[in-house]
Amino acid sequence: MSGERSASQGKIEANHRNALRSTGPKTQQGKERSRANALKHGLCGEVVITRGDYREDLDGYTQLVADLRDYFRPVGAPEDVQVEQIARCYWRRMRAAQYESGAIQRQADAARSSEEQKRVLTLVDGLDLEQSSLGIAQLIEDLDEIRDEMQGDVLSAVSRKWLMNYFPGTFSFPDKVPATLADGQRGAAVSEKEWQLWLQQVAAERARLLRRKKGVAKVERVKLEAKLRCSALPDYGDLTTLLRYEAANERQLDRALAQLERLQARRRADGGAREARGEPGACG
């Protein structure tokens, strides 16, 4: 008995491999005939999704059924129904692969969105802007506006306060500024040398931020790539669902292959018995 079970299992596995290699009808006439045959028992609608956002290729499924019929060559309704069951199982394999791909892509999108949200929160929550490339880009943009302002001999009180808040170790202005500077205008009270020094400090901070932005952006890319690599497998919930679905489908496939093998073996045995007795219809 153990030898018979091993042989049967080997036959099932061979059927798995051979069915996937089946090329089906070669001529257009044969393909059209096979496609029509795939609807023989009206079971296609039970497995192929043809409505809604997720739609599958009905022609692809009917061609799969035709290819499997061409390979297994079922005789009679019982064998044909088993071939259709085998086709449904192979189709569900494809669907499981698409589910896995979608789950992985969803995780990758979530990881990318999470990292982007962190950079945005740096601006919204008033965190240290130099901790994200987006925050540094904002600082550089603000410095560019102040530089343009100063090139027109203007430095507003808002700009002075901003410079001292973000770069306290670089910028310092007198507590009592000249009246003209208090109004935002440089005026004669601020020397050219002092004004140019402020401009140089703005340029130096901008250059420093550009260098830092490159380093921070690199770190962000490394973190994102690590998260994306960790998204290469479905999460526990998706994986559990997928494994259960695949396990149930494989059990159905094994049963259908085994049942088809038994039906065909019985038919051939009956045909051989009839042939031995010289009865008509012995060949099956």
Q: Report the radius of gyration as a whole number of Å.
A: 37 Å
Largest sheet report: none
User: Total helix count?
Assistant: 9
Arithmetic mean pLDDT: 81
Secondary structural class: mainly alpha
Q: Tell me the strand percentage band.
A: under 5%
Helix-strand string = HHHHHHHHH
Termini, distance in Å? Answer: 27 Å
- Tally of DSSP β-strands: 0
Give unreliable regions as ranges.
1-7, 31-36
As for the number of domains, it is: 2
Q: Shape from CA axes?
A: rod-shaped
**Helix percent band:** over 70%
Structure summary:
The chain has about 280 residues and is mainly α.
Question: What can you see in these coordinates?
Answer:
The protein is mostly helical and 284 residues long. The chain has helices spanning 2-21, 28-37, 58-72, 76-124, 133-150, 157-166, 179-182, 192-230, 236-277. The protein is 73% helix and 0% strand. Mean pLDDT is 81; it is low at 1-7 and 31-36.
